[in-house]
From TrEMBL:
Record PTM N6-(pyridoxal phosphate)lysine, positions in chain: 288
Protein name as it appears in the record: Serine hydroxymethyltransferase
Family (UniProt): Belongs to the SHMT family.
Biological-process GO terms, alphabetical: glycine biosynthetic process from serine; methylation; tetrahydrofolate interconversion
Gene Ontology molecular function, alphabetical: glycine hydroxymethyltransferase activity; methyltransferase activity; pyridoxal phosphate binding
Summary of subunit composition and partner proteins: Homodimer.
Marked site (Plays an important role in substrate specificity) residue numbers: 287
Binding site for (6S)-5,6,7,8-tetrahydrofolate: 180-182
UniProt keyword Transferase present: yes
Length: 501
């Protein structure tokens, strides 16, 4: 029988030099490869890509090997619909312990009154939160009025009237082009189909949130939910002001902190900038700045705990116990001093990168950043965001294009690049490296021009990059990533030799 990767490794190493992280990876990959070698191969190829490309995607990070270990095991085999001590399946005692531990850690980390750790993704968390609010504010009072709290006992007419009422509510979130997320009321998303939406935008001149404008709109529209939070807004938010507006308008304040949860956890955003203190319900993903596994979390005031707890079966399928275990690990990691230092460095790095970019002459949306991300306007380079993204990718820099507010190029081509510092900060990079990165980005943008189409026009997708600049940038990325190695305890060359055929 052919030797496994683990056997090959152990044969050539003495006991005292055994690298346990590498052993764990080899054992895992051996098991995967036994059934499906191509999958093991692609895991290693993805590792190779991530180690050799500069990751500037604002919503991505690198989680710890402990988080990864908690995700990949037999916990995936257990059904546990319901919530701790209240399950629709037998034998859930260990999952109860895991879910309760994850929720406790989340409460400690964020100082929250209640935590619900089941949502599988940020979009699921938002839809769950919407329905929890609809339950608390529309369904319960309606049922109380009828004097029947069990919806299964309603007549067809009563049920239809309730359904109509639930479907006739208003959501006021940040417009997609101003940096809001798809689930905040974008028409291509279910959020805009289940609510009437009345999105607010950033100010046309400054690109900033204008609290007076938001208040005026909220008082006029009287939404059920006022939603704050973003996927592409480079500034901090005053949640105390949002709470005041919500109270005046009679709205529930919901915050989607998916992008900046790590900055809240790491105490970069405190006081008025801490959404957990001010909002009724806060949702977040766990894998962005927070640096945990791919998944999500809802935090809320006690008033909403019961309705949030019914996320499954209301919206969600069964919880994913392996992911809840990994969330528990991440929430504990984020309570460390090292994590707080990391979170502060994420913002310091973003500021350093933004300053360096502007000094080089690049135009940044709102003229800088207060958080982990920035938006570069690529129009002065004669490029669309899509072309700029393509050029960066070809030079070893992974980032994504992004619409700018009121973008003339729409959501597909766009006019901007979104850049974030969470991943490079995890690798240990600091301000001097941000200067290097800004110079690389500038050099590539300057050296890129739209490719010609067959008819002689300008392509909005394809580009031509000056080959000398391309080669030089690729080399610079390589040199930088040699100094800041992803998962240095894992021997990538060995993994490649074993699993890439
Ligand atoms: N896809 C995420 C982002 O990149 O911002 C939001 O869900």
């Amino acid at each position: 029988m052919k030797e496994s990767g683990l056997q090959m490794y152990l044969k050539n190493i003495s006991m005292e030099n055994i690298n346990t992280a590498l052993v764990a990876y080899l054992a895992n990959l051996d098991m995967v490869a036994k059934t499906f070698p191509e999958i093991a191969e692609n895991i290693v190829k993805e590792f190779s890509d991530q180690r050799t490309h500069l990751k500037l995607i604002a919503s991505e990070n690198y989680c710890s090997l402990s988080v990864q270990a908690a995700m990949g095991n037999l916990l995936t085999d257990k059904y546990a619909e319901g919530y701790p001590e209240h399950r629709y399946y037998g034998g859930c005692q260990n999952i109860d312990a895991i879910e309760s531990a994850a929720a406790e850690e989340a409460k400690l980390l964020f100082g929250a009154e209640y935590a619900y750790v089941q949502p599988h993704a940020g979009a699921d968390a938002n839809i769950t939160a919407y329905w929890a609010i609809l339950s608390a504010k529309i369904e319960m009072p309606a049922l109380e009025k009828i004097g029947e709290m069990n919806v299964s006992n309603l007549t067809e007419q009563q049920w239809e009237a309730l359904r109509q009422k639930l479907g006739n509510q208003k959501l006021m979130g940040l417009d997609y082009y101003s940096g809001g997320h798809l689930t905040h009321g974008y028409r291509q998303n279910i959020s805009a189909r289940m609510f009437q939406t009345c999105s607010y935008t950033v100010d046309k001149k400054t690109g900033l949130l204008d609290y007076d404008q938001i208040e005026e709109q909220a008082l006029k529209e009287k939404p059920l939910i006022l939603l704050a939070g973003y996927s592409a807004y480079p500034r901090s938010i005053n949640f105390r002001k949002f709470k005041e507006i919500a109270e005046k308008a009679g709205a529930v304040l919901m915050v989607d902190m998916a992008h900046f949860a790590g900055l809240v956890a790491g105490k970069v955003f405190t006081g008025d900038e801490d959404p957990v203190r001010w909002a009724d319900i806060v949702t977040t993903t766990t894998h962005k700045t927070l640096r945990g596994p791919r998944g999500a979390l809802i935090l809320c005031k006690k008033e909403f705990a019961d309705v949030v707890n019914k996320g499954c079966p209301l919206v969600l399928g069964g919880p994913l116990p392996h992911m809840m275990a990994a969330k528990a690990i991440a929430f504990r990691e984020a309570q460390s001093k090292a994590y707080q230092d990391y979170a502060h460095q994420v913002r310091d790095n973003a500021r350093a990168l933004a300053d360096a970019a502007m000094k080089l002459g690049m135009r940044l949306q709102t003229g800088g950043t207060d958080n982990h991300l920035m938006l570069i306007d690529v129009q002065p380079f004669g490029l669309t965001g899509r072309q700029a993204e393509t050029a960066m990718t070809q030079c070893g820099i992974t980032l994504n294009r992004n619409a700018l507010p009121f973008d003339p190029n729409g959501a597909w081509f766009t006019s901007g690049l979104r850049i974030g510092t969470p991943a490079v900060t995890t690798l240990g990079m600091k301000e001097p490296e941000m200067q290097e990165i800004a110079e690389m980005i500038y050099a590539v943008l300057k050296a890129t021009k739209p490719a010609k189409t067959k008819s002689g026009g300008q392509s909005r997708t394809h580009v031509e990059i000056d080959s000398k600049v391309k080669i030089k940038t690729e080399q610079k990325v390589k040199d930088l990533l040699k100094r800041f190695v992803l998962y240095p305890e894992l021997d990538l060359e060995l993994l490649k030799r074993i699993y890439i055929r």
